Amino acid sequence: MTIVYGTVMLLLVAAFVAAPLLRNESGPVGADPAVADLETRKEMRYREIREVELDHAAGKISDEDFRTQDAELKAEAVEILDQLDQLKQRPADETA
Amino acid sequence: MIVIEIGFARDDFAFNIVAQHSSTTTPAFYKLTAMWSSQEGSLLLWAWVLSIASSLALRATRKTLREIVPYATAVMMGIAVFFIGLMLFAGNVDPFMKSNPVPAEGVGLQPLLRHWAMMIHPPMLYSGYVSFTIPFAFAIGALITRSADSTWIRATRRFTLIAWTFLGFGLLLGSYWSYEELGWGGYWAWDPVENAAIMPWLMGTAFLHSVMVQEKRGMLRVWNVALIVTTFSLALLGTFLVRSGVLQSIHAFGDSTVGPYILGLIAIVVIGSTLLIISRLDDLRSERRIESFASREAIFLLNNLLLVALTAVIFWGTFFPLISELFTGDKASLAAPWFDTYTAPVAVGLVLFTGIGPLLVWKRMGWKNAKKTFTAPIVVSLIAGLAVLLLTDAGSEPLAFAIFLFGIFTLVALSTELWRGAIARRRLSGESLPVAAVSLVSRNRRRYGGYIVHAGIAFLLIGIAASSSFQTKEDITLKPGESATVGAYNLTYKRPTVDVTNERISFGADLLVSRDGGKPVLLNPSRNYFRPNGEPSGPIASYFDGEATSEIGLQSGLRRDFWTAVQPNMTKMNRTVARADAGFRRCIRGAPGTPPACGAVGKMMRAAAADPSIRPVALDQIQQLQVATIRKVADGYLTEDSAATFRVLVNPMVTWMWIGALIAISGAMIALWPTARGRRARAVATRAAKVKAGKPMPGSPAGGESGS
């Protein structure tokens, strides 16, 4: 019985540990690698934008610093989105 | 792995590994875990875990990092080939080696390892060591392909965190085993193998922090690759120290011949990686510089320097015997007080930064915001520190008091951080405060999971400071019926106890312990004497030829632990055993005056010598006779009125160390766990549309996960 319990415990621990690793954090599955990398960078920028918003709302960042950082991050996000658009349009252009 | 495990479960002694490390009498739990008590089993575990981790890493990056992955795969497979090659070609470390002849009974598991924590501790440590291969391999891949950005860091972040968590859990289990099993009352002895495990953990901690600086600010690129190379090299060094026997260690059971090969691998990793980093220095230039010392990146850098300094101190102390032998010819070891002298001040700095880091923001924090953020934690911790100073004797140990003070500061800082975050979220999302607090943590798992880890580390360091600086320790010798006092505790040695099995004899004590005249608690410490491994029978004295282990008496509490181990006085017992052995030999010979049964056993032995097929029956009869004899001998201990020596320790707040470690592990699990992909994807899509449309970002952190 101990062996059964041990095996079940082992499988549960293995499933728990492996679950986060089986999620693809590096980009959407099926995407072109370059697109996937940009998607990852885009998500990163969004996270940073939200974090700066939260820190500002919590009183940890001054209004002036918030405006500067927020603008910088959003500009970077837009630049990534533009690059993404270009990459996504490329196959259509190439086909035409 | 599965084949060997089945071999252990079925007592298949045709496998040499099973015959040498298990027996039919080994409990099932220990049978399943006995594999990694062996050298060859550990190597198999290394290769097995590495194969799984590599497969998971390749799956996670199957659609990305196309340039890096082939090189990373080559590194991971290279390491795997090395360990598989060791098993195949290094001699006597093949886990599938056959026994010849196949024994009827196995040697059994090392007595010291018969503890639940010690059975889980090695796979945890090894999983930690092995998982650091993944970020190392991807770092090498990124260097080769000149991919200097932080893509490889993001792709392997979870592996790094898993490695750190496993290694930390392994260290925790090892400490708990030491506290419960080794009979000296401590949880950390600065043993070389312990040090070898904590060094990669410390460097992994530094790496986990510094990669955030690269992700957020594009800085510390050289530092990060150097850190992961060092972390992985130290992980290999840990395996080398357990397996080489070059340093005196309580883990001497790990000695073998594969050490030089592992040392060769470490040399290749260190030299190769260093040359690669040097050749890529131009690609690794930082994008930005630190703008202000009042920023999170500045504190992370300071914390990194402290962690590296701490690792350097431990490295020097660990290898000092080899260094001294090189220069003087003598192996001079550095004892625990040397380590304490140099590591305690660094620990004080670390616990302070554990609190400061989460309060700061990236880039810079203005004076007004800093005042607003830091005032409450500073004021509350100063008031609490003053109370500790006035109400306890903590002031007598300045370093311990500093850790208490900064530990309290950290806990208050983290609480205020959660409070402010929840208030901000409530304002932005309109949720109730409890819902806002839960949402804040669940949607920002990396950030708040990290804060929970920090809280756990603060508790852990407070527990270490209290239990090591304010410990009461006394050795007391008592006869049955006598009492003694240790601090506020009263001890009464009520009676001796004895327990005999075929493998061991155990001499213990019923000890009544009460505090401040309160209700007494019965503790049963004992000393277990094992026959040498694989000794099926022998003289009664052979029970004392093997290893001895301690079963401690422990009364745990949140404020303090009462810990005791017993050392029975064996003088009379040894004389009795010698007489019994002489009588047993006479009995076997069928000497005049011995019972008729003795003669029968003697005849059986002589017949077994001539006919091996009846040996098992003969051995069984002799064992039964011996156990009956040793029981009689042992029963004599109950009436001989011998004194026993009790080591008594009162360890304040040691439980907080274990609680802190478990809090830290749970925080790491929270940080590790991803948010639901669907929710994140929806949030990302919505935000993408709004940013592209030129609309202001909604000032809500409610959308998804944020990293810290």
What does this structure look like?
In chain A, 82% of the residues lie in helices and 0% in strands. Chain A is built from three helices and no strands. Chain A is flat and about 65 Å long. With 708 residues, chain B is an alpha+beta fold. In chain B, strands 2, 3, 4, 5, 6 and 7 form a six-stranded antiparallel β-sheet that branches. In chain B, strands 1-10-9-8 form a four-stranded antiparallel β-sheet, with helices on one face. Chain B is globular, with a radius of gyration of 30 Å. The C terminus of chain B is likely disordered. At the A-B interface, helix 1, helix 2 and helix 3 of A face helix 3, helix 4, helix 8, helix 14 and helix 15 of B.
Give a quick rundown of the structure:
The complex is a heterodimer of chains A (96) and B (708). Chain A is mostly helical.
Write the layout of secondary structure elements.
The complex is a heterodimer of chains A (96) and B (708).
Chain A: H1 2-22, H2 33-57, H3 63-95
Helix pairs in contact in A: 2-3
Chain B: H1 2-9, H2 16-21, H3 28-33, H4 39-60, H5 68-89, H6 116-131, H7 133-144, H8 151-181, H9 192-217, H10 221-244, H11 259-279, H12 296-328, H13 336-359, H14 367-391, H15 398-429, H16 433-443, H17 445-469, E1 472-478, E2 483-486, E3 489-500, E4 504-515, E5 521-523, E6 526-530, E7 548-551, E8 553-555, E9 560-568, H18 571-589, H19 596-610, H20 615-639, E10 644-652, H21 654-672, H22 677-692
Antiparallel strand pairs in B: 1-10, 2-3, 3-4, 4-5, 4-6, 6-7, 8-9, 9-10
The termini of chain B sit apart by 39 Å
Oligomerization: heterodimer
Summed over residues and divided by their number, the pLDDT of chain A gives a mean of: 76
What is the number of helical segments of chain B per DSSP (H or I, 4+ residues)?
A: 22
Helical amount among residues of chain A, as a percent range? over 70%
**Overall average pLDDT of chain B:** 86
**Alpha-carbon distance between the two ends of chain A:** 66 Å
Question: Largest beta sheet of chain B, briefly?
Answer: 6 strands, antiparallel
What's the alpha carbon Rg of chain B, rounded to whole Å?
A: 30 Å
Structural class of chain B: alpha+beta
Please give the count of helices of chain A: 3
- Biggest sheet overview of chain A: none
DSSP summary, beta strand count of chain B:
10
Low-confidence stretches of chain A: none
